[in-house]
Design a protein that fits this description.
- The chain has 233 residues and is of the alpha/beta class.
- The chain has a single domain, classed as Rossmann fold (3-Layer(aba) Sandwich), CATH 3.40.50.
- Helix content is 45%, strand content 20%.
- Helix 2 links the parallel strand 2 and strand 3.
Length: 233
């Protein structure tokens, strides 16, 4: 039986790249997204060992139920890639309270629910990996990132708490700080004057996620940064 990888938040960017990389490496891949429109097509592309699951990652009960279904249908997950990271933009007066809460739910509460669902199986298996897609916004709050930055900061702090609790159990929790603009059709349309090297290639971010799951236990990383070589920082 193939090892199982869950990708939370599957879309045409990082989520799809994560799924393709782990499928190529021999994993059965669970593609989790709020809508099946994209994930079903990706599952068909990846083959019989990839399945699409509909789940609102802001709903803890839905997350727990979906993880249970994945374990029943594909096997006990040994890798969780929490790529869900939606947010709204605006300053503290412009954003609405419901949107603020939703951003926190997807980024932080969804991660907590997913970690609780997969950790027991990983412990029983003797180890596993949880990789979280973070953002530079987790380190600083901009005037227009009142919701996104605070949600990502909560996510980062939660990931660190998970790491300190789960590393001794052999479960490697890590965070990729994405610093830059991910190469997507919509970002290309918004920035048509930018050269290729301005963008972060999702396949290269996926390579970083794969590397994190392969690290030897004596030298685990918690937080790594991914930025294009031309990014000013």
């Amino acid at each position: 039986m193939k090892p199982v990888c869950i990708v939370n938040g599957v879309g045409p960017g990082n989520g799809a790249a994560f799924a393709r990389r782990f499928a190529t490496e021999g994993y059965a891949v669970a593609l989790v997204a709020r809508s099946r429109e994209f994930s079903e097509g990706l599952a068909a592309e990846l083959g019989a060992d990839a399945r699409a699951y509909t789940c609102d990652l802001a709903d803890p009960e839905a997350v727990a139920g979906t993880c249970a279904r994945i374990a029943d249908e594909l096997g006990t997950p040994t890798v969780l890639l929490h790529n869900a990271g939606g947010g709204i933009w605006g300053d503290f007066q412009e954003i609405d309270l419901e949107g603020f809460e939703q951003s926190w739910r997807v980024n932080a509460l969804g991660l907590l629910a997913a970690a609780r669902a997969v950790a027991p199986g990983m412990r029983a298996a003797g180890g596993g990996s949880i990789v979280v897609t973070g953002a530079t916004a987790s380190r600083r709050g901009g005037a227009k990132t009142a919701a996104f930055a605070s949600a990502k900061a909560a996510q980062r702090s939660l990931a660190e708490s998970l790491a300190k609790r789960l590393w001794p159990d052999g479960i490697h929790v890590s965070l990729i700080i994405v610093d830059g603009v991910v190469d997507l059709p919509r970002t290309r349309e918004r920035m048509p004057d930018k050269p290729d090297e301005f963008f972060l290639n999702p396949d290269d971010i996926a390579a970083t996620a794969w590397w994190l799951t392969r690290q030897p236990r004596s030298a685990w990383s918690f937080e790594v940064e991914a930025r294009p070589f031309g990014e000013r920082w």
